[in-house]
């Protein structure tokens, strides 16, 4: 009997790992050639990493009253005369270590921004898929609702909703659930951005042959929308999500600055800027300026990453 293995040796070809495949993809190649994207990603990962590691690396816990002394309020950062060595970035008006408060506040702002965008995406994608696929009166009604929503600014809707919420539930309950209220109102106020984009993509995709083939095979509308059309609509969704995270963080900071967001006892970047604004003319500029610089840097790098994502995922703009 002939040894088939000896006569026809089979060479096993290892399939490259997913990490290697991604590293060789056009997205990774474009990222490696774009120094702005590399620096922006590094800064974003640094800010996000230290923010979410705040309980491990922060010198103090701003939520622990035992670690807060009002007599330590308004100490300057280390490069200004009169600073204390244990407070490297100074203290705020409540005597909290500003570095620790910024770390915890940045984490809270990022959580609110990401969760609000998740609400926006869920509402907008669902409404956009139904509107574009079903069409007819359903499409007209849903898009008119989106037009009405877009006629009001996010801050206007948020201010009205949060002011009514405070009046109905009281300041104590509002302060306790301020994170939930902010996520809900910012998420609900921005869903038309997703809905209109997804609807436009669905209108183009549902006329293609693979959708007709899915209908012939007997697949229902839900499966066709979720399993076939939605995956081909992810590119614009990724671009919108990147920009919307930055917008949600700015919205949270704006509402907190106006006194309708996070309370001073739960530090976010917006509430820190708001609490220090009254002291900026008295010489305690660091309470507002340093958190403001962190906020500007965070939003800037997210927007730069959003621009890079848009250029890469848009074939008309991508030059290789």
Tell me what you see in this structure.
- The chain is mainly alpha-helical and 320 residues long.
- It has a single domain (34-313), classed as MetI-like fold, CATH 1.10.3720.10.
- 68% of the residues lie in helices and 0% in strands.
- It contains 15 helices and no strands.
- The longest helix is centred in the middle third of the chain and has 37 residues, at 98-134.
- 36% of the residues are buried.
- It comes from Poseidonocella pacifica.
- This is Peptide/nickel transport system permease protein.
- It is a multi-pass membrane protein.
CATH topology heading: MetI-like fold
Helix/strand/pairing class, anyone? mainly alpha
Which CATH first-tier class would you pick? Answer: Mainly Alpha
Strand content: under 5%
Give the rounded overall mean pLDDT.
82
**In whole angstroms, how far apart are the ends?**
56 Å
- Which consecutive residue ranges, at least 5 long each, have pLDDT under 50? 1-7
């Amino acid at each position: 009997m002939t040894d088939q293995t000896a006569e026809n040796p089979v060479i096993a070809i290892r399939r490259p790992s997913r990490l290697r495949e991604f590293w060789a993809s056009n997205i990774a190649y474009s990222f490696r050639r774009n120094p702005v994207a590399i620096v922006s990603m590094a800064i974003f990962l640094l800010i996000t990493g230290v923010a979410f590691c705040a309980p491990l690396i922060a010198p103090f816990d701003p939520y622990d009253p035992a670690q807060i002394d009002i007599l330590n309020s308004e100490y300057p950062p280390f490069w200004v005369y009169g600073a204390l060595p244990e407070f490297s970035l100074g203290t705020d008006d409540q005597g909290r270590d500003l570095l620790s408060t910024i770390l915890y506040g940045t984490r809270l702002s990022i959580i609110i921004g990401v969760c609000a965008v998740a609400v926006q995406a869920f509402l907008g994608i669902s409404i956009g898929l139904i509107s574009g696929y079903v069409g007819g009166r359903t499409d007209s009604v849903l898009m008119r609702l989106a037009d009405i929503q877009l006629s009001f600014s996010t801050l206007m809707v948020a201010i009205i909703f949060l002011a009514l919420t405070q009046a109905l539930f009281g300041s104590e309950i509002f302060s306790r659930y301020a994170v939930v209220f902010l996520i809900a109102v910012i998420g609900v106020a921005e869903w038309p951005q997703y809905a209109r984009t997804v609807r436009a993509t669905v209108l183009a995709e549902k006329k293609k042959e693979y959708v007709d083939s899915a209908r012939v095979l007997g697949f229902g509308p839900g499966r066709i929308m979720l399993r076939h059309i939605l995956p081909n609509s992810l590119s614009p969704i990724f671009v919108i999500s990147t920009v919307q995270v930055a917008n949600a963080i700015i919205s949270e900071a704006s509402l907190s600055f106006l006194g309708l967001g996070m309370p001073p006892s739960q530090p976010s970047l917006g509430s820190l800027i708001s609490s220090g604004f009254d002291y900026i003319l008295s010489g305690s500029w660091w309470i507002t300026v340093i958190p403001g610089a962190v906020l500007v840097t965070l939003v800037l790098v997210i927007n730069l990453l959003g621009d890079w994502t848009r250029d890469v995922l848009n074939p008309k703009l991508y030059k290789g």
